[in-house]
Amino acid sequence: MTEKAAASRPLWKDYLELTKPNVVALMILTSIIGMLLSVPGAVPLDVLLMGNLGIALCAGSAATINHLVDRQVDLRMARTHNRPVATGRISSDHAGIFATLLGVTGSVVLVVYANVLTALLTVASLLGYAVVYTLFLKRATPQNIVIGGLAGAAPPLLGWVAVTGEVHAHALLLVLIIFAWTPPHFWALAIHRVDDYAAADIPMLPVTHGERYTSLNILLYTLLLLATSLLPFVSRMFGWLYLAGALLLGLGFLYWALVMMFKPKRQAGMKTFQYSIVYLMGLFILMLADHYLVLTPNV
Q: What residues contact residue 209 under an 8 Å CB cut-off, 6+ apart?
């Protein structure tokens, strides 16, 4: 988007951009599926709708804080230099008020329609991303996305807890899968955008250790992800339908990791990043299909 086009668009679109709607949509998909997997039957409609609304509002609050904290960094990166706070289309004060309203409203919605534990875990996830990752880890270590990835892995647990009111081992398996998925997913994008991160002086792994070393880490984490994705079958959370699909999706991810390692191409990083999104969506949809079609006991 050109600066002229960004300046002329409606203000509500700038506020929507602050919430990173595409990222939040993927999080809510995993949250919804976490809810549906938590019980053998139907999830109460009010919890399904309002619980995910509360989680989405808190996620949007964290994303807005990210825009606010990174406004100077964003100006130095081609991918982000037209963001609303970075360009001044939305002031820092207004972004801060907006983030606060989203976070408080989301927390209240979760307390009223889900339970206090879900609200507490969601706020902890918000603070983990907006404060621990964005303010500290992102600038402190090339392992930032590994350590900070736990906050982004929480949505299926939040959905599960919203329905059941308890932390279950199977919900933690879902968190573990996203936790293992995050490094190869994000490092593929970081390789594609390495010049941006270098210009912004952000110590992402390809900036500090080079693309070859990062590609090796992507390959190793993809193997770890493939193994981790089989744990729900091993634990009898899901059955053979899930196992077959998880293996196929995992082998697809492994293919792109091998391409990046041994036959790097200009767009390999972006294609791997794009496939990683398809992978996660496909894996969680498989979980849902196995849960309802195979009726594997999961509690």
A: 142
pLDDT in tens, 206-248: 999 999 999 999 999 999 999 999 999 999 999 999 999 999 9
Give the domain-ending residue among 132, 167, 202.
167
pLDDT tens digits along 123-161: 999 999 988 898 888 888 999 898 888 888 999 999 999
Which residue from 227, 217, 231 is spatially nearest to 186, judged by alpha carbons? Answer: 217
Count of domains in the chain? 2
Q: Rounded to whole angstroms, how far apart are CA atoms 97 and 102?
A: 9
Burial of 147 (0-12, 13-18, 19+ CB in 10 A): middle
The three-class DSSP label of residue 238 is coil
Per-residue pLDDT tens for 165-217? Answer: 999 999 999 999 999 999 999 999 999 999 999 988 999 999 999 999 999 99
Claim to verify: residue 144 and residue 25 sit in the same structural domain:
yes
Cβ-based burial of 125 (10 A; exposed 0-12, middle 13-18, buried ≥19)? buried
Give the pLDDT score at 2: 54
Q: Is there a single domain that holds both residue 246 and residue 157?
A: no
Domain holding 219, by residue range, is 168-299
Which residue is it, tokens 């082998």? 251
